[in-house]
Design brief:
The chain has 369 residues and is mainly β. The chain has two helices and 26 strands. The radius of gyration is 22 Å and the shape is elongated.
Length: 369
């Protein structure tokens, strides 16, 4: 299968917006439209793409991405780094539609600009690359707008949310976080995003061939995995080495949560924790003392998505993490129950783990590859 490419067209008109006052700056005639392209890279261990539409052909209509633009080597704010109040934390927000990317509209149900009404996002036609400094573009998928008041500030977070219950296709797809970063020199006419999976994935085949006829599993069988990080409905944070250089610094914002060392650039740092006045990132590395808040406890149970395209095939997105105890599969079919211990303590981001569960009357077994 050929990789899917999305064209994010920034058809730049002859003007560029400069602030909310309506001031306009003429674009020189030699400037050209900036073309954004994107390719989804498959999971390690899988020879086709596996994002969002389950079948492996890429994004689906209605998927959201957010783009953060940072010029890390200058202290001045360059074009593209700010949305001038059109979105919280100066994110550029786009939505997939019929093979290309456009802006969000009020019908998407998000209060983008903080006026307490559903609104659309600002078009990226206000962005062009003519400043004499390198640009860093960081893009990632998101699925939920979090909205709350902190002090006198209205906070809007365009968040990639993890769902423990992935039995619904929408929750499974939303949990599969894609991330890309592109570093460009001045005046580039195109920006290419290689989107990588930042979570891990399990592809589980149930083999019930050893069961007698009449005792095979039904189509209503439910598969879950316990002993995983308890991050249901949490915002997953991916590190960005350039976040510390962001010209926008707001409460609960990107600069606060996503900044990291160079070694952690593009790696999942953990999940966001919002306090009364600020946010921090809690890692998923082991099972902490119950009285400690140093990392996420491994008390989560995830429910797998049953693939409609194949018989007895389940899929599950899990966060990259290191566990102390082996997680356990639970297979439920009516009043019948089976449990299987998974011999896996380390789940690495971007990896696909293929698992076969053999359902037999007396000796349950599980195998991985």
């Amino acid at each position: 299968m050929k990789p899917l490419s999305h064209i994010l067209m920034l058809m730049l008109a002859g003007t560029v917006l400069c602030g909310c006052s309506g001031n306009e700056v003429a674009v020189p005639a030699e400037d050209k439209p900036v073309l954004f392209t994107g390719t989804i890279k498959p999971f390690e261990g899988e020879d086709i793409q596996s994002r969002v539409n389950v079948e492996g052909t890429g994004f689906t209509d209605g998927d959201f991405i957010r783009i953060k633009v940072i010029c890390p080597y200058v202290t001045s704010s360059e074009y593209g780094e700010q949305t001038y109040g059109a979105s919280y934390d100066s994110f550029w927000l786009l939505k997939s539609n019929r093979g290309s990317w456009g802006t969000l509209s009020a019908s998407d149900g998000c209060d983008i600009n903080g006026d307490y009404l559903d609104s659309g996002s600002q078009p990226m036609s206000s962005l062009y690359l003519s400043q004499q400094t390198p640009y860093v573009f960081t893009a990632q998928t998101w699925s939920v707008e979090r909205k709350f008041v902190a002090g006198s500030n209205l906070v809007l977070l365009y968040s990639p949310i993890f769902h423990a219950d992935q039995s619904r296709e929408a929750n499974y797809r939303a949990s599969d976080l894609l991330w890309a970063q592109s570093y460009l020199q001045t005046g580039s006419e195109s920006v290419h995003f290689d989107f990588y999976h930042k979570m891990a994935a399990l592809k589980i085949t149930i083999d019930d061939s050893a069961l007698p006829e009449g005792e095979k599993l039904s189509d209503d069988a439910i598969l879950s995995l316990s002993g995983m990080p308890g991050i249901d409905h949490a915002e997953v944070i991916v590190g960005d080495y350039y976040a510390a250089k962001s010209k926008t610094d707001v409460a609960f914002g990107y600069k606060q949560k996503n900044k990291c060392t160079k070694d952690n650039n593009g790696k999942v740092l953990g999940v966001a924790v919002n306090t009364d006045s600020y946010a921090y990132t809690m890692p998923m590395t082991g099972n902490p003392n119950p009285d400690s808040r140093s990392c996420v406890p491994n008390d989560g149970t995830y429910t797998a998505y049953k693939d409609k395209a194949a018989t007895k095939l389940y899929r599950l997105i899990v966060p990259p993490c290191v566990l102390e105890n082996e997680p356990v599969f639970h297979l439920l079919d009516g009043d019948r129950r089976w449990t299987y211990e998974l011999n896996q303590l380390n789940f690495e981001q971007g990896n696909l783990y293929k698992i076969t569960i053999n359902v037999v009357p007396d000796s349950p077994s599980i195998s991985t590859e």
